[in-house]
Amino acid sequence: MKEKLFFDNDIILDISIERDKLLENDVNEAVKLINLIESGKYEGYISTIIFTNTYYIQRKLKDHNTSINFLKKLRIVLTVLSMDDSIIQKALESGFNDFEDAVQYFTAVENKMDYIIARNTEDYKKSAIKVYPPSQYLRTSGQILTC
């Protein structure tokens, strides 16, 4: 059975706005992980909130068509998980410092994800699911040398 990886919004934003040019850490590892999902090695998932957040930020930095085209490609590679009232309720009551991360987390829990892939791992201190940045996950899974 393939491992189910849930991507936090920060990873998708890093890729969409090419934040590797702005950050010290290397976003290429996130792209490698997406490529492994595309090749069938893993199953990749995101929540619906990723689409609105990514569009909003990417459109400001680039343009509408670039944003829509990126999101169309993203939807082909990663499975979109819906959110419902119970996820929102759990997020509201969770005590997470970041509400958006709480929504992401409970979406991952509800859908039985194996791992959460996020740059801001500190925001997931209360997570029962293991949370890794892309490079650490690739090292842990033994994929860093084969990508």
Account of the protein in words:
This protein is α/β, with parallel strands linked by helices and 147 residues long. The two termini are 20 Å apart. It has a single domain, classed as 3-Layer(aba) Sandwich (Rossmann fold). It has helices at 9-16, 28-38, 49-61, 64-77, 85-93, 99-110, 134-141, and strands at residues 4-7, 43-47, 79-81, 115-117, 130-132. The model has no long low-confidence stretch (mean pLDDT 90). Helix 1 packs parallel to helix 3, helix 3 (49-61) runs antiparallel to helix 4 (64-77) and helix 5 crosses helix 6 (99-110). A five-stranded parallel sheet has the order 3-2-1-4-5. It is built from seven helices and five strands. The longest helix has 14 residues, at 64-77.
Features:
single chain, 147 residues, alpha/beta, Rossmann fold, 5-stranded parallel beta sheet, 7 helices
Oligomer class: single chain
> What's the shape?
globular
> What proportion of the residues form beta strands (DSSP E)?
5-15%
Overall mean pLDDT stands at 90
Q: What is the name of the CATH class?
A: Alpha Beta
Give the number of DSSP strands: 5
Q: Give me the CATH architecture, please.
A: 3-Layer(aba) Sandwich
Number of domains: 1
What is the helix content?
A: 40-55%
> What's the arrangement of strands in the largest beta sheet?
3-2-1-4-5
CATH superfamily: 5'-nuclease
Summarize this structure briefly.
By secondary structure, the chain is α/β, with parallel strands linked by helices. It has seven helices and five strands; from the N terminus they run E-H-H-E-H-H-E-H-H-E-E-H. Helix 3 (49-61) runs antiparallel to helix 4 (64-77) and helix 5 crosses helix 6.
